Amino acid sequence: MAIKKWIAGVALAAVAGIGGFIYLNAGTSPAPSSTFVLLDGSQKTTADLRGKVTLVNFWATSCTTCVAEMPEIIATYKKYQPQGFETVAVAMSYDPPSYVVNFAQSRQLPFKVAIDNTGMVAKQWGDVQLTPSTFIVNKRGEIVKRYVGAPDFAELHQLIEKLLAEA
């Protein structure tokens, strides 16, 4: 009887240990190696963003949810940018570049805006097809959260604050 209890205890400890390991590593995967072509023609890579908490937002000018959430993304960027927060808005390949440029200028987007004219960046980030799709990347270059649709911005701000506080 004592041996059965001991075996059950060992099994329970093993399951708890594995569960804890999975929980602690849940949702973190390396951000793909990507090159973002910005509206001004310059390029940024995911490697350039290391050391910063980064929001990568896949969007389109034809997406009503994307357009509706943009003021919140701007406010989030302005709130956290002085603390080392970065934002890259990636326009989908089907979005006409002239529409993206017009949107970025008329809305005075303060962050980096990229055009994924080949669809390669969306493919690298998990074959993104639904917009908006937003990824939060920590300072180590790991994706810690993905939102499909508009994020809960209060929750998003808590996550950003937690990630900015990390060494």
Automatic annotation (TrEMBL):
Pfam families: Redoxin. Residues 25-165 form the Thioredoxin domain. Signal peptide: none annotated. GO terms for molecular function: oxidoreductase activity. InterPro entries: Redoxin (IPR013740), Thioredoxin-like_sf (IPR036249), Thioredoxin_domain (IPR013766), Thioredoxin_ResA/DsbE_sf (IPR050553). The chain crosses the membrane at residues 6-24. Keywords: Membrane, Transmembrane, Transmembrane helix. It comes from the Bacteria. This is TlpA family protein disulfide reductase. It comes from Comamonas antarctica. The lineage of its organism: Bacteria, Pseudomonadati, Pseudomonadota, Betaproteobacteria, Burkholderiales.
